[in-house]
Amino acid sequence: MNPSLSTSCSTACAIKGFFAALAIGLLGGLVGLGGAEFRLPVLVGLFGLVTLQAVIANKALSLLVVSIAIVARLHAVPLAELLPNWPVVLNLLAGSLLGAWWAAGWAMRLPRKTLDTVLLILLIFLACTMAAEQVFGLHALPDLGQVLSPASHALLGIAAGLVIGMFAAVMGVAGGELLIPTIVLLWGLDIKLAGSLSLLVSLPTMIVGFARYRESEAFAVLRTHRALLWNMAVGSLLGAVLGGLLLGVVPTDGLGLVLAAILAISAWKVFRHRQAH
Description:
By secondary structure, this protein is mainly alpha-helical. The protein is built from twelve helices and no strands. The chain has one domain (11-276).
């Protein structure tokens, strides 16, 4: 085991993980996010995980959350609506699986400071994307499927999947923040349907990235920090449920912009601090 890897977490640390994940899941649930992008700075900054450990831990938590979310959303978007749109899922998977496999291998070879820089850039980009979606909304996106030839449409879907798969693998996230706008933009589907389809793309994409990360010794974080991660998993799921229940009860105007700002600031503080040390 590399001595630079974080290898322990006390009971108090695990309990802190539960409440941190609960808060992230609750706030994410109020604005329709899984919260993986917020967990990453927390895993590094609050719990001291080495960057690659944090990515792998985040990936494991995201896998659990997405698996449950797929089942939970079936009451809102039943299989009868999903099945006719399998070509959308397969088109994106044609690129995302390859992107996830390659990017996970690339991330394992990067020096820690370089990976910190990459994650800082991606998190700030994601914060800007979140802010733009809050300001302009997804309804304003055009339907490119109406103007592209079938071949161009398919190739663009593969290319988009490739980029999103890379993004998701390096950050340990599901990638829904990019998948949903992509599905709306390329296929002109309803946002609720796009959300469920994005989960069907995310799950196999994350499994591929997760399998590649097994080659890294940092994968041992799932054993050494088992208590922390189980507590965070329970907190994430409970928070997401509470957030969903409070949706429409608690005012959320402007919350997405606040969360985008928090994400950018926390990413800057955590990963710039790591680079300085």
